Amino acid sequence: LNSSAIPLIPEAFSGYVIFYKKSKDPAEAEVQENLMQKLIENGLKLKMDNFLFIDIMEHPTRITALKKQLEITKCFLFGVQENEVGLNAVIPVYSLVQIASLDVLKSDAPELLEKNSALKSKLWKQLQISFNLAG
Question: Cα(79)–Cα(81) distance, rounded to whole angstroms?
């Protein structure tokens, strides 16, 4: 298996990509997954299969290479720096920006968010804007 190959694309993929660094610690990895699942299913009312999750430690992926293969509309960096996915822009944390018609949102790693409700709230506000849920 080519280690640079992108992970399997879910059938229900909707153009949303989450880059993160999966923890080697099983308990922390579960915290990461649970937080993302709660945000997606309970908060955004979407399915996990609408998203492509890329663990950049296992699948180092450049956003430009991914965009050549997939139609991506939203990109979320959870504890990942822009240069780690080939973005040549400085993105403020918890501030939704558009780069070449792509919504990009950078936040702290899920395991840090889980412990800090103020940061979760900042992330949630930006996600609501990105998914047009703010009301």
Answer: 7
Label the pairing between strands 16-20 and 51-55.
Answer: parallel
The 10s digit of each residue's pLDDT in 64-121 is: 989 988 999 999 999 999 999 999 999 999 999 999 889 999 999 999 999 999 999 9
Separation between Cα atoms, residue 120 and residue 115, nearest integer Å: 9
25, 45, 52, 109 from 6: Cα distances, Å: 23, 26, 10, 21
Which strands sit side by side in the sheet containing 16-20, from one edge to the other?
Answer: 51-55, 16-20, 74-78, 102-107, 97-99
Question: Which pTM was predicted?
Answer: 0.92
> In this prediction, what percent of the chain has a pLDDT beyond 90?
82
CA dihedral of residues 46, 3, 1, 65 (deg, nearest 10):
60
Radius of gyration for the chain, computed over Cα atoms and rounded to the nearest angstrom: 14
Which tokens go with 45?
């009312």
Return d(Cα 102, Cα 96) in angstroms, integer. Answer: 10
